[in-house]
Amino acid sequence: MSVISKSRFSDQRVRxxxxxxxxxxxxxxxxxxxxFVFYVLTAAYRGIFAxxxxxxxDEGKDAARKDGKSAxxxxxxxxxxxxxxxxxxxxxxxxxxxxxxxxxxxxxLVFRTAISLYVAALDGKIVASLxxxxxxxxxxxIIRWLLVAIPATWTNSWLSYVxxxxxxxxxxxxxxxxxxxxxxxxxxxxxxKVYYKISNLDDRIKNPDQMITHDIQxxxxxxxxxxxxxxxxxxxxxxxNYQLSQNVGAxxxxxxxxxxxxxxxxxxxxxxSFGTYTAQSAALAGSLRHTHSRLSEFAEEIAFFGGEETExxxxxxxxAALVQHxxxxxxxxxxxxxxxxxxxxxxxxxxxxxxxxxxxxxxLPGLSNFDLGSRxxxxxxxxxxxxxxxxxxxxVMYSYKDLAELAGYxxxxxxxxxTMSDMKKGRFEKALVSGATEGENGxxxxxxGQVLLSxxxxxxxxxxxxxxxxxxxxxxxxxxxPGEHLLIVGPNGAGKSSLFRILGGLWPVYGGIVRKPHASDxxxxxxxxYLSLGTLRDQVIYPHSQQDMGARGxxxxxxxxxxxxxxxxxIVEREGGWDVTREWRDALSGGDKQKIAWARLFYHRxxxxxxxxxxxxxxxxxxxxxxxxxxxxxxxxxxVSHRPSLWKYHSTILQLDGQGGYIFMKLDAEKRLAxxxxxxxxxxxxxxx
Length: 689
Ligand SMILES: Nc1ncnc2c1ncn2[C@@H]1O[C@H](COP(=O)(O)OP(=O)(O)OP(=O)(O)O)[C@@H](O)[C@H]1O
Fold this sequence. Notes:
This is ABC transporter domain-containing protein. This protein is of the alpha/beta class.
């Protein structure tokens, strides 16, 4: 008897509790919904601002280490600071084309979510009208379906179009800015020539070409996609789940979220470090490509040596390492794919089905109409919402990965921008020779000299220092006036070419005063002259364009006259005219290249010509006429040559001894030649004895 009354009492209690719950359910619902939205926002915030795990931090490091530099790359304040600097370049103002594209992109994303919500409801209605046998309703719904398809397909196509356009616009802005600094124009004066300084005076960036092409492109693509990958899923999760909570009750939703989050944590723990693998793959592929490009670059040398077997072995080694790595990654992807599909598709699918079934099996207070049609409609709509929502949750979950990748590319792009800015300020980071920073050497390295514009060349106590801090000459003083041709002699490595690098504004001046004309008043003819991409005409007038040539009033006939000076006029006919484009580096012999460079000198007629073994490959009788013509045109020669036959064209000599000493004096070529002959005679006699 007492047992029955007890159970009746507890039944009563449960009923009372249920009634109290039903009465307060709207409040509970609101509480749970607010809690859910708060949870999604904090989870997203933690996802974005969380400190990465040590493993993920290492992935970032590897990405930055590709250039040999180890820098911490994380989604942190430094990242946001770097990103904001780059954002100011890619979106210069709110009225820019990029800002407009971004606004269009955002609007399209919101519009797409609205369409998805409508389609979920419509889907349910179609199935409900089918189950109820309402043919007219069914037909009307199908027409609605077809009508909504128009903006839906339109939106998706527009979305990818606008996103790609945005990525391209970012890339163009960034590339233009980088090229402006990298190939700084004349106006930059001594701050220019960043492309030279970055690879010769600094160690931070080993492959600027890859950064300017590949990394900027990857950065732009990631940046354009980040809104779609981050803000959009957060918005989707909130909207879809809000709608779902209206349909199935917030309780089911909270239960579902707990289950999804638990399994997601499991999946995250199982995820291999794919970021590191990608970086390693890129490094191995880069190495293989480098070995191949060396083979084509030095094909002639390798062919003469018969080095095919060695080269093949090297390439095969690189390839084997790449294949081994790729196979390892493929294996990991295989089992990860199984785990991912099992959890995301099947486990989450079953959770979803259970949640969708709640309104079917339980009469939820506040939800009415429980005929078969309504149940089916509710089920189909909820299922669709669930699928979209779980997809959005997945994307929020992985948004950290996207941000981490963006952080990686951001660090690469900002490393490029920072290094370029340092080059312009004369701040270089390079491994120095031992002892470079100590004592007097250190004092020289820490100080800076002055560069003043002048018609003459005048060095006053200027040290010659290599980029790695090796001091070739502690203090050099000499001067050259226009018309006083200077011969520079000295053993290998004494610093002859280094002197020219200072004159050309390539190397910094560490002390004293350098007075010299602007870098554009110098023209260099090295032993192996540079030939550009382009026509035969472009080779002779380089770096002028055809328009520059026209503006100077020079015609093709004048260019033939220039070529006659170096006995090369026949080349125009031989190669098929001025407009023929070839790989001139391969089409011309070493001597022809030097003659073209001399023709270039006669076309430009600069104030000073730097001749660094510039006649080594032309016949001796020609070198004399070329020198005479140059001096007759008023070009002052600064010559490095081992040929005594050239002495007579110079009036001063700078003799470096290779030990840090030098002599600068007037050159009496005849006397010097006589002395040289006397010395050779004596040496010959000594040998005979
Ligand atoms: N970009 C650079 N970075 C570091 N050191 C350099 C660089 N360029 C040249 N050097 C060093 O500067 C020193 C002088 O080189 P430089 O080319 O001036 O010699 P040189 O007198 O012209 O010799 P050579 O007759 O052999 O051409 C060499 O020891 C060389 O290794």
